[in-house]
Design a protein that fits this description.
This protein is 34% helix and 4% strand. The chain is mostly helical. Helix 1 packs across helix 3 and helix 2 crosses helix 3. GO terms for molecular function: methylated-DNA-[protein]-cysteine S-methyltransferase activity.
Length: 114
């Protein structure tokens, strides 16, 4: 696991990120920046990415497959069990994609608190 003390965030940053991601409903996605902003850390989207990479995943109740890049792109193939797994998980939840293979954020972006 990444040494969180090296980031200056302390041991709670990753757990706070996991807590936000646990709130994303099925069939919705959030961006890394959106998660960071909801945490009160709007400039730490990259650190949210590190957290998702270290998450316990679905077995730990963290649906990290619902977090995508700001343009709707999916994570590289090393995550989620191999190339295509994030897309497969999102499709099973009803998430649709644009012609260029990105999540249709207009339809599926999570609006927290709405």
């Amino acid at each position: 696991m990444k040494d969180q003390s090296a980031t200056g965030e302390g041991p709670n940053f990753f757990e706070r990120a996991f807590d936000v991601v646990r709130q994303i409903p099925q069939g919705r996605v959030a961006t890394y920046g959106q998660v960071a902003t909801l945490m009160g850390e709007p400039r730490k989207a990259r650190l949210v990415g590190f957290a998702m990479h270290q998450s316990p995943g679905l077995s730990g109740g963290v649906p990290c497959h619902r977090v995508v890049y700001a343009d709707g792109s999916l994570t590289p193939g090393f995550a989620f069990g191999g190339p295509g797994e994030q897309r497969r998980l999102l499709v099973t939840e009803g998430v649709t994609f644009t012609k260029d293979g990105k999540v249709d954020l207009e339809k599926h972006r999570w609006e927290a608190g709405v």
